[in-house]
Amino acid sequence: MRQRLTSEALVALVAGVLFGAGLALGGMTDPARVRGFLDLFGNWDPTLAFVMGGAVLVMAMAWLIQPRMIRPLFTDVFNLPKARDITPRLVIGAGLFGVGWGLAGLCPGPGIAALVIEPLSAAVFVATMLVGMVLVRLFEKDA
Amino acid sequence: MLPGFPHAEPLAGLAGGILIGLAAAVMLLGSGRIAGVSGIFARATGVASSSMPRLAAWAFVLGLPLGALLVMALNGPLEPRFLSLPWIAVAGLVVGVGTRLGSGCTSGHGVCGVSRLSPRSLVATLTFMATGIATVAAINALT
To answer: Tell me: the pLDDT tens digits for A38-95?
Structure first.
């Protein structure tokens, strides 16, 4: 059990480091570049299309391998999202997320990775993001 | 260099994207999970409960800045262009609310879900791209 936990944490650490390196290398930790990508009707910067394209291409191969595996390499079962319904909640949430993404040029991954690049700005982003997440949870408890 | 887009960095973008795709593949094939940053961050901080061990969630979250540090050590300093703190705070709040309601962000929906051709993730990704583009266009029109 303890061995499982350790190996799963190590897998997550390796994935996190690769992810953070990819974000920094691809320019996603530079908010101006992200906003340049979203500036489709202005001074468009297509760099992030290459980031997304590269990531989706590699991950699509992993999705081809996954069904042929009985279980993951270091854990017992695949824990994958099962929801299939397209709900108003999904669309409203994604829409709001896009507004925040466009406003500051930051999404969660680059915001966290940027803690070592621009500590104060990134810390404000991560802290307020956490507040937003807690707010949703509080409202859901009332409902 | 990309003809017509002097500021674009297609090769760095592609390299970064491949690393992000590898990170997501390691997570899926190694521990059977989706590398969705907002969800894993919510799990690490205790906002959300999931089957992912908290230790593993923290390992992934801490890996993100470690990966960025690695890129800075190997590739030289990054020059991020952040907006002022009040904008970042508003954006962080909106991103926090949106990613919880929408069950994910650019990584979970945009990379893992799109590459799986998940209808929910395709809808979410098109939605946050559209509102992100609209937000940047609106800000540019007003300022």
So the answer is: 999 999 999 999 999 999 999 999 999 999 999 999 999 999 999 889 999 999 999 9
Runs of H (alpha helix) within A26-87:
31-38, 47-65
Alpha carbon A40 to chain centroid, angstroms: 22
Query: Is B1 in CB contact (< 8 Å) with chain A?
Result: no
Contacts of B94 (CB under 8 A, 6+ apart): A96, A97, A99, A100, A103, A132
User: Are residues A50 and B75, on separate chains, in Cβ contact within 8 Å?
Assistant: no
The helix (run of H) or strand (run of E) holding residue B66 is helix B54-75
| Separation of alpha carbons A29 and A45, rounded Å | 15
How far apart are the CA of B96 and the nearest CA of chain A, in angstroms? 4
- The residue range of the domain holding B132 is 10-142
The closest of B49, B113, B98, B90 to A93, measured between CA atoms, is B98
For residue B4, name the pLDDT band (cuts at 50, 70, 90): confident
Q: Report ipTM (2 d.p.).
A: 0.96
Name the domain count of chain B: 1
The reply to whether B1 falls in a domain is no
Determine the pLDDT at residue B35. 96
Asked whether residue B2 is assigned to any structural domain, the reply reads no
Quote the mean pLDDT of chain A: 95
Decide if B5 is inside a domain. Answer: no
A42 to chain B: nearest residue by CA? B137
User: Which two structure tokens, joined as six digits, stand for B118?
Assistant: 């998940």
